[in-house]
Design a protein that fits this description.
34% of the residues lie in helices and 14% in strands. The radius of gyration is 16 Å and the shape is globular.
Amino acid sequence: PAPVTAPRRKRAGRRRAAVSRDQLQEAGYIVPDGPVTGLAEEFRIIRRQLLLGAPGEGSTAADKRRLILACSANPDEGKTFCAINLALSLAGEKDVEVLLVDGDFVKPEILSTLGIEGGAGLIDAICDPAADPNDYVIETDVEGLPVLPAGRHGNGVTELLASSRTKDVFAALIANYPNRIIILDSPPALMASPASVLATHVGQVMMVVR
């Protein structure tokens, strides 16, 4: 008989939200539980290459390769489009949970694209040394796809991201989740300084070129 995969466990006490399938379909994204399209097949190919470079739990280097930065040089090259589609594609893997993190602090679009209301997120977790970053994670009704908002925006974001606290935050987001892959949507590299700082915290980069 075929092996039975245990359902992914939802953590108690976290905010939950529903992803708008209609909104995704209208904007041309992969639709969870929808028909297999050419776009879905393209991202299956991409996700397979990234999973090969992101082994499971083990060394620090291996853990770092579970953090993937979605980046582009300039705005409007499709970076966020690719980050969301990659996350939706990865969520279809039976043994993987993908945490989609909005790291574009000036122009956060991930939650609005998914039809989810924003709130406190990554920057708030970095600012509070006593906070558990996982408390800011939002569980969605797409199995295996939680999301983390960008959080509040203000001056000094680049300096916050360069602090040792940021490294601790990312470590906490994967420490107790051996099957978790993090997709981090970054600002355009040539337009905003946080992009180059975020790149120092990840082990893989998906560069999107128009």
